[in-house]
Amino acid sequence: PLVLGIETSCDETGIGIVRGRTLLSNTIASSMEEHARYGGVVPEVAARAHLEALQPAIDAALAESGVALADLDAVAVTSGPGLAGALMVGVGAAKALAVSLERPLYAVNHLVGHIAADVLDLDAHASLSPDRPQGKLEYPTVALLVSGGHTALLLVRDLTGDVELLGETMDDAAGEAFDKVARLLGLPYPGGPEIDRAAAAGDPAAIAFPRGLSRASDMAKHRYDFSFSGLKTAVARWVEQREAAGEPIPIPDVAASFREAVVDVLVTKAIAACRDHDVPRLLLGGGVIANRRLRDVAIARAAEAGVEVRIPPLSLCTDNGAMIAALAAELIMAGRAPSTFAFGADSTLPVTDIQVAEGPA
Ligand code: ATP
Ligand code: MG
Ligand code: FE
């Protein structure tokens, strides 16, 4: 099926077009710069930006793929989770498009969309994806999704029917932690790339920052859950004490030690999930995957554990419309009925709701 996907859950306006598992176009407009002076995504600003970016993004995606609106077999949209106001813009646009074209509409889960990014056949785009093993996504797989808005560990037995949430963050998302620590070090937003750059010249073992929810007692109760707010506070306290003592802040060492703490916890828990469930595959997704240290540590420790790591190209790891179109295409190929229009934006949509408002067959 030829599917156009609309993604507006956060600050990216993503329009993707796929034909089955073939990627035809993936247009992304981000309002990231508009949020920079606030140090984080401002929901109202994001929603307004989607409204302005949607139509040009749809036009660009159609032009890039050489597809006409009338050729489409279905429209797909992210229903949640995400920022309610931002989601609503995409949902409204998708309903209008589906009605006017008289095409079925598939309302899907953003997190499961991140996993669906890996079903796309990228042979025509091999350069996009140096770390990605060839061949298709196999089941079961453990997925670690890390971005500015979420940090989740999932067990995927079937993309269209069986996705289990093993654990998630109890407070800040991993990307959010990068952004907050960057801010307290006086580095600009988004903080991930800034911390990464500063860390390159630092010693990851310089400061022993805490690994959240990793003690034996925590691992019993929160084996797959994450917590980054304690780490953020530890960095803040360390920096304050230095400043109070009138000593300079070794930013590279702080950045490298902080990054190591985040990476260590993420990878340790992901590999534990693979081992516990006897799953030899780990899929990584989300914008924090841009972190080279995270990729390297994941690949190295997975190899020791006999686990294959799959990393989609970065343009498919950050929020995008192609993954939403890809998930809808999988649902269609699995014979799933389209969504009714009885759905809206669900900011807390659980990952087990892969498709929302599925209509009668
Ligand atoms: P969502 O949670 O809906 O996916 P988002 O827009 O916040 O929303 P992404 O766009 O996928 O998430 O990722 C942005 C986040 O990734 C930011 O928090 C940013 O700091 C972080 N990030 C980007 N590059 C790096 C990096 N090299 N290292 C660590 N974090 C990074
Ligand atoms: Mg983003
Ligand atoms: Fe996302």
UniProtKB/TrEMBL annotation:
- What domain of life? Bacteria
Q: What is its EC number?
A: 2.3.1.234
Positions annotated to bind Fe cation: H110, H114, D319
Where would I find the Gcp-like domain in this sequence? 23-325
Swiss-Prot/TrEMBL cofactor(s): Fe(2+)
Q: Does the keyword Iron apply?
A: yes
Keyword list, A-Z? Acyltransferase, Cytoplasm, Iron, Metal-binding, Transferase, tRNA processing
| Reactions catalysed, as given in the entry | L-threonylcarbamoyladenylate + adenosine(37) in tRNA = N(6)-L-threonylcarbamoyladenosine(37) in tRNA + AMP + H(+)
Give the cofactor binding note: Binds 1 Fe(2+) ion per subunit.
Please identify the protein, giving its name as recorded.
tRNA N6-adenosine threonylcarbamoyltransferase
Q: Which gene encodes it?
A: tsaD
